[in-house]
Sequence to fold (81 residues):
Amino acid sequence: MKAKIVITPKKAVLDPQGKTVQTALEHMGYTGVAGVHVGKYIEIDLAPGTDKVAAATALDDAARKFLSNPVIEDYKLEIVD
Fold:
């Protein structure tokens, strides 16, 4: 199993990296881009036999307390087989 965590800036937070990417895309001729948000992607390999529910609970806690900054970032956790 793997845990996948995607961390992105909250919509209300200024995202200078995202704005830079958006501007670069526009300069390269890509049209229709309304916004870009740059974040982090974390993939965690779980040991065989790990309880999926327990892993999701523990990793949700870790994502909230350590992996993301809940003041300015949102995260999405997914456990896949």
The chain has two helices and three strands. Residues 2-80 form a domain with the Mth169; Chain: A , fold (CATH 3.30.1280.10). The mean pLDDT is 96.
